[in-house]
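Sequence in, structure out. First:
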Amino acid sequence: MKTLVVLLSMIGVGIGFPSWGLPQPVQDEPEVTAAKKAHIAALAEAISLMQSLGAAQAVSGPEDDGSWKGDGLWKQHDDGSWKDDTQTWKQQQSEKKWTGPVALPPGYDKHGAPLQVLDTPEVSAAKSKHFHLYSYAAAKAAPPKHH
């Protein structure tokens, strides 16, 4: 009996679970849906126009004509003039490495620490006005002093 109650409870939770505020699929606005339909219709019209003009290859992309067979015939035309020189440069051990100043982006001092950000005159004026009004209101709201 307890198993039946647990089973029915789990089924009830499973049925009601999707309505508990879980994220729902994103729905397009009506304008977006209309724009998508118009775009797809224009695309289909362009494809059918190209196919009717006999330009099917432009739609499907370049086709392999099967002329390359990978049989090594291309090696007969290699005259050896191109050489792979990626490994010819080697750093000499006697060369000294750069020990000059480090290039830093603007806003950093010579040690790499960020420079202090200064307020513009407008921000300074607004801060000053705010602190003045705050201190005036705080003074009025303070309890009276007993001397």
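Second:
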Amino acid sequence: MHCSYFLWLDDEEVIGWQKRALIEERDEIREKKKRIRELTATVNLLRMELEKLKVEKPSSSNGDEESICNEFVKLLNKGNFH
């Protein structure tokens, strides 16, 4: 088996539990990358919504952090984000 990242100490074909373990870890990494992409998209969407609120309500951009946080929480609840 040829691998560009690791040099196997034995040249035997990877089978059995070793192969299952590698496949399971590969799948877990893929799932985590997918979740990170989803969360990044959610954060970007929330940032855009927050910027819209700042433009629509200039009074909340005067340093009223509590108001901004409350609007952010409302966006989270409204959007049904996971």
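Remark: Residues 17-56 form the longest helix (40 residues).
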